[in-house]
Design brief:
The complex is a heterodimer. By secondary structure, chain A is an alpha+beta fold. Helix content of chain A is 31%, strand content 31%. In chain B, helix 1 (10-26) packs across helix 3 (57-76), helix 2 packs across helix 3 (57-76) and helix 3 (57-76) runs parallel beside helix 6 (135-142). The chains are: A alpha+beta, B mainly alpha. The A-B interface holds A 1, 4-5, 7-9, 11-21, 24-25, 27-29, 31-33, 35-36, 40-41 and B 6-7, 10-11, 14-15, 18-20, 22-23, 36, 39-40, 43-44, 47-48, 96-98, 100, 107, 110, 125, 129-130, 154, 157-158, 160-161, 164, 169-170.
């Protein structure tokens, strides 16, 4: 390459591409943060920590669901108890039954669990000092009940940690 | 690039190398906004699938950016082939260099001259000068022999020298 081309090349190298905009960097930042493995994301308190404030929300939701279920079962039982004997008269117009409480007709429709984190927590010792790997799986379980009369539904969502201990062995052969 | 495996350091890497990658993407897109979309897509793809691979991340990313740009062009139906860009729409392009003080006229002159280069020469020039790829890497990225890349680079410099003020580069 002759000298003038070399000189031009050097001049071009002095030009600096314009800086990327902050808006764009933030945009990529957000997208990449979603791609980061769970282990690299900012740490939060474990969902199994019963002192965690998050449990307040879960407890409230769970309690509401349980109360709704108890109400449903109670109403249903009251309706099925036999009443005092009464003369049967099929000719008489039957008085319309009182409106059934919507809670009485809630039926379970779906139960799902979503695995959102799977972490190998390394080697542990189990009975007999045998090595094993401890794997923690974190799920969110969701149960849904629905009232077919008015399409109202109750959804109960709970976090769940599942720890699996898998025996590990090493065979050099 | 190993450092980008860490959540805190990838941002610094992108801040440092983002401008080069955007300039590179700009060769294959119609606007700076398109270039941003393409680099973002390529970088996320790289992050997801390739960040653990050995080799020069810059070269891998440039290849990924080129593919993303071609996909983008197809999706947008703006270009059916990269070569078509060489003949049309160059006037609407603008190169994104940092203003360099009193030399802004010279910078604009160089940018204008670069825009008049054939696309094949311009992309080689950008990959060589500002992305610091070797001719071999450029060849792999553009799917051309390294000698062809080197020739295009020389032609590009010669054409620029001819276009630019002879008083400076005569």
């Amino acid at each position: 390459m002759d000298e003038s081309l070399q000189e031009l090349e050097n001049e071009l190298k002095t030009l600096t591409p314009r800086r990327a905009s902050t808006r764009w960097l933030h945009q990529v930042n957000r997208e990449l943060a979603a791609e980061l493995p769970a282990s690299a994301r900012p740490r939060y308190a474990s969902a199994t920590n019963l002192n965690s404030w998050k449990w307040l929300g879960w407890r409230t939701a769970g309690l509401a669901a349980v109360l709704a279920l108890l109400a449903a079962v109670g109403t249903s039982l009251r309706r099925t108890e036999p009443g005092p004997a009464a003369p049967v008269n099929t000719a008489v117009a039957v008085k319309p039954a009182p409106a059934i409480s919507p809670a009485a007709t809630y039926q379970p429709v779906t139960a799902t669990n979503v695995l959102y984190d799977l972490k190998d927590e390394g080697l542990v010792k189990v009975a007999g000092d045998n090595p094993a790997r401890q794997i923690r799986a974190r799920y969110v379980d969701t149960y849904t009940w629905k009232n077919p009369r008015n399409n109202a539904s109750i959804r109960w969502t709970m976090p769940r940690d599942e720890i699996r201990v898998v025996p590990a062995s090493y065979n050099p052969n | 690039m190993e450092a980008t495996n860490d959540h805190d350091s990838w941002k610094h890497w992108l801040e440092a190398h983002g401008p080069k990658l955007l300039l590179c993407a700009r060769q294959w897109t119609r606007s700076f906004a398109d270039a941003e979309d393409v680099v973002q897509e390529a970088f996320v793809r790289y992050w997801r699938h390739q960040r653990h691979l050995p080799g020069d991340p810059q070269a891998l990313l440039v290849t990924s950016i080129r593919r993303a740009a071609l996909d983008h062009a197809r999706r947008q139906a703006r270009r059916v082939a990269r070569e078509e860009k060489a003949d049309g729409g160059l006037e609407e392009r603008e190169f994104a260099f940092e203003p360099a003080g009193e030399d802004s006229d010279r910078r604009r002159e160089i940018e204008a001259a670069m825009q008049r280069l054939p696309a094949g020469q311009r992309e080689v020039l950008v990959l060589k000068i500002w992305n610091e790829l070797t001719f071999e890497q450029i060849g792999e990225t553009l799917e051309i022999p390294p000698n062809t890349a080197a020739s295009r680079y020389r032609y590009a410099l010669a054409a620029l020298r001819k276009e630019l003020n002879p008083a400076c580069h005569g």
